Amino acid sequence: MRAFVLERYGKKRELRLATMPAPELRDDEVLVQVHAAGVNLLDAKIRNGEFKLILPYQLPLILGHDVAGEVVKIGSRVRQFKVGDEVYARPDDFRIGTFAELVPVKEASLAHKPKALTMEQAASVPLVALTAWQALVEIAKVKKGQKVFIQAGSGGVGTFAIQLAKHLGATVATTTGTSNVAMVKSLGADVVIDYKTQDFEEVLKDYDVVLHSQDAKTLEKSLRVLKAGGKLVSISGPPDPAFAKAIGASWLVKLVSRLLSAGARRKAESRGVAYSFLFMKASGTQLREITRLIDAGAISPVIDRVFPFESTNEALAYVEGGRAKGKVVIQVKN
Q1: What is the rounded distance in angstroms from the CA atom of residue 157 to the CA atom of residue 50?
Q2: Does 287 reside within a domain?
Q3: CATH code (residue 158)
Q4: What percent of the chain has pLDDT over 90?
Q5: Do 115 and 134 share a structural domain?
Q6: For residue 233, is it within any domain?
Q7: Per-residue confidence (pLDDT) for residue 134, from 0 to 100
Q8: Is residue 78 domain-shared with residue 28, that is, in the same domain?
Q9: 119 and 135: one domain?
Q10: More confident residue, 299 or 51
């Protein structure tokens, strides 16, 4: 099969298009012929070596964390899927590799593709949708009438999280650039702050939940817009001890996580709010819930650009540039 391979870690390092052996299929996995693959900033960060400590992948490595495609083979223990099914998923860590023509995915991490979506649209969903779901539903437990601040509303996670928070009945605030104000309002944002001309800390007050995806300075300001008992869920760090424990990390990673998050946790505690770090996990069960929302018309994916498979490096560079409105997708099979 053809695949884009990372041979060595390095910033801006290009992936190499290579012919690779078909992946081995385990008993609890489904082999998916990749029609389309979503591109995420996580792919660039892994390529750059930023996750070597917590995700010690063996190189060479095929990147890619989103897939939509067709089942071509099933493992002996698989019961929910059959050859020919149209499916989508965020493969598990250490089984990623959707920048390829074939990828194995655990049955437990797979879901049938939403009927309302094309393969390209479906491939844009899993990672950002699961991130938003795990942050807002699982950790923050957002309820009707609460106020939720979602940073970077025009990004991949932001566009999905705004719609999910509105579906849950929240009042939603977000930040974006001037050119994207109308778009995030169309997704349901009630309060839109143009980060180029406004400071969100001067506008927002007494929020219940913050979905944080920016830098340390923004995190500190975000803690101040929460009311007592509020929750900040960060997808951009720093990792905390609870995360290190959940992934069964080594003592070194546990120590580093404790040290890196000490300041954020201390500031949160002093304000009577909670700080959590989220590194989303694969889940077919949650994807099925998300599928129901998509097929019901409650949430629609937002796609910026679709690149041909041969332009995977260009797609990765485009995502890393930070200008994408919604998701970027690679079309693997025409």
Answers
A1: 20
A2: no
A3: 3.40.50.720
A4: 92
A5: no
A6: yes
A7: 98
A8: yes
A9: no
A10: 299
32 and 152 in a common domain: no
In a domain, 293, yes or no: no
- Here the CATH number for the domain that contains residue 319 is 3.90.180.10
Considering the chain, what is the average pLDDT of its residues?
Answer: 96
In 235-308, at which residue ranges do the beta strands (DSSP E only) sit? 274-277, 303-308
Of 196, 138, 182, 136, the closest CA to residue 163 belongs to 136
Q: State the residue for tokens 């939509």.
A: 68
How many C-beta neighbours within 10 Å does residue 18 have? 14
Separation in Å, CA 140 to CA 12, 40, 63, 132, 229: 35, 23, 30, 10, 11
Q: How many domains does the chain have?
A: 2
Same domain? 108 vs 71: yes
**What DSSP designation does 100 have?**
B
Sequence-ordered list of residues with C-beta below 8 angstroms from that of 268, at least 6 positions apart, any chain: 223, 232, 274, 275
Task: Give the list of residues 6+ apart from residue 226 with CB closer than 8 angstroms, or none.
Answer: 206, 207, 208, 209, 210, 232, 271, 273
Res 99: pLDDT: 98
Strand, helix or coil for residue 144: coil
Residues 65 and 177 in one domain: no
Q: What average pLDDT does range 69-84 have in this prediction?
A: 98
Q: Are 119 and 134 found together in one domain?
A: no
CA angle 32, 33, 38 (to 5 degrees): 85
* pLDDT exceeds 90 at position 54: no
pLDDT value of residue 164 = 98
Phi first, then psi: what are they for 12, rounded to 5°? 65, 5
Residues 231 and 108 in one domain: no
Tens-place pLDDT, residues 122-165: 999 999 999 999 999 999 999 999 999 999 999 999 999 999 99
Token pair recorded at residue 56:
């010690």
**In-domain check, residue 292:** no
pTM: 0.97
Question: What is the domain extent for residue 7?
Answer: 2-124+301-331
| CA–CA distance, 119 with 67 (Å, rounded to integer) | 9
